[in-house]
Amino acid sequence: MSDTRTDDSRNDVSRAEAEDAVRVLLRWSGEDPQREGLLDTPKRVVKAYEDWFSGYGLDPEDYLARTFEEVEGYDELIVLRDIQFESHCEHHMAPIIGRAHVGYLPDGKVVGISKLARVVEAYARRFQVQEKLTAQIADCIQRALQPRGVGVVIEAAHECMTTRGVHKRGVSMVTSTMLGGFREDARTRAEFLQFISVGTGR
């Protein structure tokens, strides 16, 4: 499991060192860290980072450890769609805002639906690229539940593209990972995509 320490340091970097790093960036940008409006900014940024990147202290598979087998033989698609998330691009540290759709074909056991959302959150609260995030979620569900198939689709907007560089707003990126029955059976894949209505403008 990842480091879950709650003391004043993360990975041998103290809170004071992290706050100093924020002050350096403020000075580099042309600001005065001692200006009244910025005095508490380093503390606020470090606290925000603790929230935004709390996924490093979580093991997503832990959320899927408790399963239920009293499902009366149910073996059809289970889909949780529109799981909203916020992440950060590992290239520019800019926000990635999107939603994930997760589906699986159970093989005798299911998991509480809130746990699927928690898996998405745990991976999203790390520095990411969308392709890796999509694969990590699918692989985690496959390892923990051993279902007959897993499908994950993510739609997201990347602020590194909308607020810098080409400055193109209204653009979203779609990625998918299909495992097992979702990859091998076109009908299962089509049913999943119909359930989540990707690209229909709903």
What topology does this entry show?
Blueprint lengths: L8 E2 L2 E2 H14 L12 H12 L14 E2 L9 E12 L5 E11 L4 E2 L1 H12 L2 E2 L1 H16 L3 E10 H4 L10 E8 H4 L1 H11 L6
Parallel strand pairs: 4-7
Antiparallel strand pairs: 1-2, 3-6, 4-5, 5-8, 8-9
Describe this structure in words.
This protein is α+β, with helices and mostly antiparallel strands and 202 residues long. It is built from seven helices and nine strands. A five-stranded mixed sheet has the order 7-4-5-8-9. Strand 1 and strand 2 (13-14) form a beta hairpin.
Task: Give a brief outline of the structure.
By secondary structure, this protein is of the alpha+beta class. Helices cover 36% and strands 25% of the residues.
Number of strands: 9
- Which range does the strand content fall in? 25-35%
Strand order within the widest beta sheet: 7-4-5-8-9
Mean pLDDT: 91
List its traits.
202 residues, five-stranded mixed beta sheet, 36% helix, 25% strand, alpha+beta, two-stranded antiparallel sheet, disordered N terminus, single chain, 7 helices
